[in-house]
Amino acid sequence: MRLHNLKYIFLSGMLLFAVASCNNDDNAMDPEQIAMPTCDDGIMNGDETGVDCGGTCAPCDDGEAMAPDFSGTYAQVDHMGRPGINTVLSADMEGMPSVKDAFNVTVPSQMVAEFQAGFEARLEQYHDVYAIKLGLDPADVNYQNNILNLDATTLTTVLAADVLQVAPDEVTTYYNGTVGLTGRTLTDDVIDISLILLFGGETGDRFSGQDTDNDGMADLPRLTSDGVSLTATIDAEFPYVSNPQ
Residues with Cβ < 8 Å from 204, sequence gap 6 or more? Predict the structure, then answer.
């Protein structure tokens, strides 16, 4: 009889333990932390048949409802394959139709035919202006083959197509001291390199604000740099951003 009572006491204790354990587990989760299914939580839950769609949510995409809407009028407004080229070589002249606007709406495959000759003429025009400022004969101050040994026609042909070429079998760089125009790294100073190619001559420093008479004043214009250098540290992983400067 005593053993029979002990058995019931033991079973009652186990039942109480189980109830207490279950109650403790339930209380461990704050009811406010239990996420209820919604139609905008990015999860397929509740009675949804897709992620945040179907069931009591909006019907799932049937392939048409979410199709891109290309209706309306679209216009290409700018090119930025080679920053600075658009500004330097397609600068507008007073009283003339906007070369820059025309350049910005031209597809790259047509740019060389449309703009190369004008770019080359503008490049030579810049040298004439600097010659006059220096008191020299414009005929004596012309573009020089640059650090890549490109003549004016070849250089402006490359630059007229406002796209960034990449050479798959060479080092990727806008210019690394030897190789140039084979791509671009995030730390390449594209503006300075472009100015050097246009105005630096064969040594890269033809017009760099030199003091030719040692009087402490620059006698040549500084055309090979915009004076802005990269000071940011760029992340080595995508999306390759840096802290604001």
Answer: 146, 147, 196, 224
Count how many residues are written for the chain: 245
Cα separation of 178 and 80, whole Å? 24
Task: Tell me: cis bond preceding 168? Omega within 30 of 0 counts.
Answer: no
What value does the CA radius of gyration of the chain take, rounded to a whole number of Å?
Answer: 35
Residue among 150, 146, 100, 107 at smallest CA distance from 122: 100
Cα angle value 98/101/103 (rounded, 5°): 105
Neighbours of 77 (CB within 10 A): 8
* pLDDT per position as a tens digit, 131-164: 998 899 999 999 999 999 999 999 999 999 988 8
Check if the beta carbon of residue 203 is closer than 8 Å to that of residue 194: no
